[in-house]
Amino acid sequence: MTTAKQGKALDLDGSRILIAGAASLVGSHTADRLLEAGVKEVVLLDNFAFGTPEAIAHLKDNPRVRIVRGDLMRLHELIAATEGMDGVLHLAAYMTLGFSQTPWEAVDVNVRGAQNMLEACRVNKVKKVVFASSNAVYGYGTGIVGALAEGGPFHSTGAPPAAILYGASKIMGEQLCRQYHQKYGQDYLVLRYSTVYGERQHYRAANALYIMETYDRVRRGERPVLPGDGKDTKHFVNVADVARANVAAFRSAATDVAMNISGPEPVTTGELVQLVLDYCGSTLEPEIKPDPPGTVRLTSGGAFHIPHDLAGEVIGWKPQVSMKEGIRRLLAWREAQEARAR
Amino acid sequence: MTTAKQGKALDLDGSRILIAGAASLVGSHTADRLLEAGVKEVVLLDNFAFGTPEAIAHLKDNPRVRIVRGDLMRLHELIAATEGMDGVLHLAAYMTLGFSQTPWEAVDVNVRGAQNMLEACRVNKVKKVVFASSNAVYGYGTGIVGALAEGGPFHSTGAPPAAILYGASKIMGEQLCRQYHQKYGQDYLVLRYSTVYGERQHYRAANALYIMETYDRVRRGERPVLPGDGKDTKHFVNVADVARANVAAFRSAATDVAMNISGPEPVTTGELVQLVLDYCGSTLEPEIKPDPPGTVRLTSGGAFHIPHDLAGEVIGWKPQVSMKEGIRRLLAWREAQEARAR
């Protein structure tokens, strides 16, 4: 049984939910699930700096969907956008690549942007905030081994600055939520997604991109590239499972707790490549290749996994999509997309 | 022997050094040491939001000192202030109390302010940045036990949001330095001060303030208050030692490394109170009292210490001022100050 603090559950039927950073993989899938759950309105907020109109193209003519162009750095826009909202899903964030390439914008959005959104929610008495965090709060480098459970520390030895900046920015985002809870009673839940992948995947997530890169090589008849010895661990989670977790978080009465959202089990790079080869029906042999200098990876190659038992206890969620099924869906979507483009 | 990366040492004789957040305990003492070391000019930058003119009153008529009112959130002011500077000591920061009471300003100064200063240093080709960090990068709560050495992770379980925000903001500041080093070759050193105390102490540092509070009670004839069982550990460092460390950091050729700056040894709360009682020649018995709810402390009471061996190896520094001597200096200063006021 969970010992999570109890706030108020949100009855999604007839409610209004805003998604910040909505023109995205997780945003678009979550909007689909919220509409299925009977919400009255979904507001899709994005500044379209990275989010693409394509990601939400299937939603734009839905009468229950409203697309709002807004920027997390402009508090007044957030106050206007959250007026009348029952819940807010805060997805908007820069990741490690962003902290490397555009560190000013990344600092803005991940720290001040989160603070602005919480302030807007306070002003408009938004009942529940679901804050998208990341397993980056456990850090990177040689310390990342074994189970990365919710009470664990943040490791950084041997990691590049951009990765540490990203992780620390997510720690700050989580703590700003806690601060608004303690100061103003704001109900919130933090979901720490592991590496999200799936249909409508964008091209900023370095780890998720690897599935696509492998697929592209195999289809060109090139051998897939296996960094290191292929035993590097990754722990993905399919976007369908993440969308279900977001909905479950809104529906849960739990508050003031952070939980991991990860796939059924971790996968090694070798297994991942084999799943793509199997999907393609290819017999190509993977090519083992050391990472180029400066490559940013979650770990230094240690075996780790991200337990999601707490999410089971707190919001009654567990992942349903296996890596094999998730890769099938992703690559089938990719093929359908290309067929349409031809 | 150190394996620290080597940049260029700064010849302080004839050099120009800017101190950001200069109207402060550490700032004023470091300015004194820099002037002794023969610098041509010390620029004392402060926005005087917390810094007080009193802290630098003894310096204001020195022809080698220039006081500049400037704000870390205004990049153009930092670019103007760092023009022609050889070195920058970046002290300006909000601490845990600031992240609790004024979290917007704290986020601004500790994250964006550090980024602004690094950018100004890049623009003006400042040779060396010494960035004041904190043992807060090891975090708080139940994880803080034993030696807090430089490779250790950031703990946060059981800690209040403001403390975690402060620690994470310092992690970000350090990593922004590393990023400027990697991207632009900026020479820098990070000094992680433990709890600084000493003459001209200000009233924002919750832990250092305890010495003064104890002294005030004893002089009023009240029993000093001992939180918990008096075995709570604190690891102070005297401001004279910190000022020497800052000077040593400028003079060192080492770059791109973070090191602890801590006093000779940790002290328990019980020992600390006894030192104050001894100084006052008092036989009052300490009163044991549990902390009020919401009290912010570095640890949950575990025994810990902060080794400073790396600073010995990298910049040839070790602390000289014992807790007994440091308390004597602090309280003698306090008495002299009050005598002047009468």
From TrEMBL, chains A, B:
InterPro entries, per the entry: Epimerase_deHydtase, Lipid_A_modif_metabolic_enz, NAD(P)-bd_dom_sf
Pfam family, any one: Epimerase
Source organism, top-level taxon: Bacteria
Transmembrane segments: none
Gene3D superfamilies referenced in this protein's UniProt entry, alphabetically: NAD(P)-binding Rossmann-like Domain, UDP-galactose 4-epimerase, domain 1
NAD-dependent epimerase/dehydratase domain sequence ranges: 17-255
UniProt cross-references to PANTHER family, sorted A to Z: BIFUNCTIONAL POLYMYXIN RESISTANCE PROTEIN ARNA, UDP-D-APIOSE_UDP-D-XYLOSE SYNTHASE 2
Annotated protein name in UniProt: NAD-dependent epimerase/dehydratase family protein
